[in-house]
Amino acid sequence: MRDExxxxxxxxxxxxxxxxxxxxxxxxxxxxxxxxxxDALEAFFAGSGLSCERYTSRPGRMSLITRIEGxxxxxxxxxxxxxxxxxxxxxxGWQRDPFAAELVDGIVWGRGAVDMLNLTAxxxxxxxxLKQSGWKPRGTLIYLAVADxxxxxxxxxxxLVEHEADAVKCDYVITExxxxxxxxxxxxxxxxxxxxxxxxxxxxxxxxxxxxxSRPFRTDNALVTAAKIVQRIAEYRPKARxxxxxxxxxxxxxxxxxxxxxxxxxxxxxETVRDWDNLTLAxxxxxxxxxxxxxxxxxxxxxxxxxxxxxxxxVDIRSLPGVENHEVEAMLKEAMGNLADRVTIDTPxxxxxxxxxxxxxxxxxxxxxxxxxxxxxxxxxxxxxxxxGTDAKFFRWKGIPSYxxxxxxxxxxxxxxxxxxHGHNERVDTESLKLSxxxxxxxxxxxxx
Length: 449
Ligand SMILES: [Zn+2]
Description:
Elements: H1 2-21, H2 35-45, E1 52-58, E2 61-68, E3 77-83, E4 103-104, E5 107-109, H3 117-132, E6 140-146, H4 157-163, E7 172-175, E8 182-184, E9 187-196, E10 198-199, E11 202-207, E12 211-212, H5 222-235, H6 244-252, H7 257-263, H8 269-274, H9 279-289, E13 292-300, E14 306-307, E15 310-319, H10 325-336, E16 343-346, E17 356-357, H11 363-375, E18 379-386, H12 392-396, E19 402-404, H13 417-420, E20 427-429, H14 430-448
Parallel strand pairs: 3-6, 3-7, 7-19, 9-18
Antiparallel strand pairs: 1-2, 2-6, 4-5, 5-20, 8-9, 9-17, 10-15, 11-15, 11-16, 12-14, 13-15
Helix pairs in contact: 1-2, 1-3, 1-14, 3-14, 11-14
Zinc ion binds near residues 83, 115, 149 and 176.
């Protein structure tokens, strides 16, 4: 018991330090400054016998690795990966200072509390504990704290996988997200993220002909064309696809049978979510069964009396695992219809890779299931895909099974979590921190021997 309290205290204090470091990633290469949290983690590991290596992709954009070498070269290597950066905040929406890491009634408030400094901190706590206990595993444990996840990970995990392959060589990866208990008729279900959608963002450059704003009749106004294109993209309906992970997840929720059938039938899922009053699940169900197109930024025009000849539209496209780049292009053209020839499509070079999914019949998945049920006896794990992007993709693209997990208490209802990710009033209870730290430690002992 005293040990568990110490675990909770260590996790809470390290999380608060990481939140206060405020490694805000705006998407610009000069933001983030994750070196601050690398310093903090190195200080945390100091004196434990663990030695740290630092990897810098750009000035200030630093990642950290520490490892406990296994004794058996044939045993698996497990990499626990957490990101240290966070997304920006809108201060006006917060009840508390998002970077003060206030601890109020067993709850830590701050940006990154659930995405994912909680896991980055508890993975570090478990790693240090294991080292301090004199643990000599058969397999190797790697702890990796990465920069830049919130802007796609290309200056963090992506950089390491491409340029420091030996340092991150492993057989399995665990990172965010999952492990929030979802109530069902037969007990709680804990999602293990086994796959994610592809982030196939595109910039559409809509062309027109410039002219005098005082004579708009029969002109070729790029903004008017762009408005029609935005409308068409918003109304576009690509075909539904049902992934195994989606089917398994929906079945595990034990909804009423007719609803389960409808949500796993490609011919009926769209009509079902369109009319569903549970908006949170409707959005999730839609996104997990369709490649989605969201026109989110538009820039155009230069002066109020000039008819614009150029408008740019940024479209956030998320492809289902298995959908290829050429299919994304074809869908986008289909959505724009006869206006497609007025548009140049700009594809960022890092946005051509699609979604990714890992097999679920692995020894690591079995170990996660075993440990989760041991720690939370009324719970069972269920594989699921996430609609957002994570650093797991870099490893899945190399064929390495990669999952997202954690372990949360029942204190904050599961319906709050989707709101807190990138939202206001992000927070986590210290009981959840303790559970995650205990789970990582137990999982490493079980899986690495
Ligand atoms: Zn995250």
